[in-house]
Amino acid sequence: MSLETPFADALQRKIDLKTKPPGSLGRIEALAAQIGRVQSSLTPRMARCQLTIFAADHGIAEEGVSAFPREVTRQMVLNFLGGGAAANVFARSVGVGLQVVDAGIAGAPMEVEGLIDRRVGAGTMSFLNGPAMSAAQCAQALGAGRALGAEGDWDAVAFGEMGIGNTATAAALGHKLTGAGLEQLVGRGTGLDDAALNHKRAVLERATARTGELAPAQALAEYGGFEIAMMAGAMQGAAAAGRIVIVDGFIATAAALAATRLEPTCRGAMVFAHRSQERGHAVLLEALKARPLLELELRLGEGTGALLAWPLLKAAAAMLNEMASFEDAGVARQS
User: Fold this and answer.
1) What catalytic reaction does the record list (predicted)?
2) Is 302 annotated as catalytic?
3) Of 151, 286, 302, 322, catalytic
């Protein structure tokens, strides 16, 4: 987000006058400045964060691109709602609320307490021979996401995902949005062996060859997932509401790329949590000119990496708000 130079100068001056050598807190200082810019405040609040997990199924999974059947999406949603997944454990450990959204799980609607129903359909179509979703469905998912991203009184939001086949979707979408080769983007996902990885790459080569250059909205409809489109909309909505958006791994970064290609101003609110082990993540981060905070060899998704980055944002805001200045502490500055 762009702000007038006087405010940006005042924000940087406040950081520089803390009792430390200039720049000695490295990227924590950059985080503090970003938080201040997003909230347009010299005393920003960074106390409340929520994780939203978007769940949906992918027609491309029918082509054998995942090691797990798509029934696992529904089973994992029940695990999230029961509090037993890694995302639940991490969220509790760092004091973050968690909610789960049905963006388009295969089968009949899940009538489960606590599940937020925003389903666009019972999973996307296979994009091997046609578009994953219609333009209207894509717009519906984006709109539902924007509304969810704008809700609440959060200082920061994190978004996770669940959807068997979604690394294939993210790879195809990333290919169309960046022009990077599929060999750079297609990874093992849920743990494919070499033969299955080669099959996945061959399927995606056939699928992406059926279209040429696409506008961002067209690429999202042709090769996206309901949860990816809804997450992209949520990132846009949260950014417009003046919230920090903590971006998780490969799938969430594909959503962030789509969000910024559709609405470039939302990029300023994004903090990239980590670099995952999924092959294509580094390519998408480079396309976004993003430097992730952590490198922990994660490849789970669910928003787990975003949750682990949340304490760093809290620390950055605390530094800006609570750390003494040289004048306050009576400490001499360097000459």
Assistant:
1) 5,6-dimethylbenzimidazole + nicotinate beta-D-ribonucleotide = alpha-ribazole 5'-phosphate + nicotinate + H(+)
2) yes
3) 302
